[in-house]
Amino acid sequence: MSASTETFLAMLAAERGAAANTLAAYRRDLNQAEDAIGDLAAAPRDAVASLAGEWASLAPSSVARKASALRQFFGFAIDEGWRSDDPSGALPRPRARRPLPKVLGHDQITALFTRAEEEASGDDPKAVRLLALIELLYGSGLRASELVTLPLHAVPRDAPFLTVTGKGGTTRLVPVGGRALEALARWLALRPQVVPTSRYLFPSDGGKPLSRVRLFQLLKALAARAGLDPATISPHVLRHAFATHLLEGGADLRVLQTLLGHADISTTQIYTHVDAARLVALVNSRHPLASRTT
């Protein structure tokens, strides 16, 4: 990777507080572009335009992400005086539709939790850990990366909140319901049997945080044991279920934005499409003209 792109990534980390996963995605996209056309700080416009052909087989959302990374790099290159022109106009601008998130029904949630509770009815630390994990995914709407990296001190002693560090290093307080608090208390009592000295709330056997991949595996295996299709279950699907079911219950969209840790309300608004049937019914029942007949 060229020195210019390394400098750009360092700026994202230092000045914009970009998260590790974000930096990794930018690094991958910029590195692939440089493999195709050379140093981006010196690449001519026609070379930049040729990237559209390199990306022809990709989904519109992937092309949009890659093009966005390059546009930001070229803007930075101009600010730094590395380039006098902006070739980003030669990049494709696909109109990617954001897919609606998969949503679990209440019956599926019940089946998943019933199985987890049955398995955690004894004192098996890993079964209790899994119950606590899914309670926080569905009960508090945490991202998988936020959940597995929770430090032990994130659990309060006298308040039903978790201190969560989200994307970009932003910190927020996330409420924890009674069920999740009970599962956490059980896990904390058994946790020393796994790794007593780890600083993470959910350590692996080696003391490092449980990996996101392992969390996916544990959740899909639980789904299979609960008689559900593992392909329909993931940590992010439980986060979506948290948001959708809160909205169904009448939660305010701004409150939901805060709980999910979304920087932009437009990201949260996708759940208004998921819950479209409820919103239509709400208009039909509450609008002043709804009861008037012609």
Give an overview in words:
The chain has 294 residues and is mainly alpha-helical. Helix content is 56%, strand content 3%. A two-stranded antiparallel ribbon has the order 1-2. α7 (125-140) packs antiparallel against α9 (178-190). It is globular, with a radius of gyration of 23 Å. The model has no long low-confidence stretch (mean pLDDT 84).
Proportion of beta-strand residues = under 5%
Describe the main β-sheet briefly.
Answer: 2 strands, antiparallel
Number of H- or I-type helical stretches: 15
Structural class: mainly alpha
Low-confidence stretches: none
Helices and strands, in order, run as HHHHHHHHEEHHHHHHH
Overall strand count = 2
- Based on Cα principal axes, name the global outline: globular
Q: Strands across the major sheet, in which order?
A: 1-2
The amount of helix comes to: 55-70%
Our measurement of the CA-to-CA distance between the termini, rounded to an integer number of angstroms, reads 69 Å
Mean pLDDT: 84
Rg, alpha carbons: 23 Å
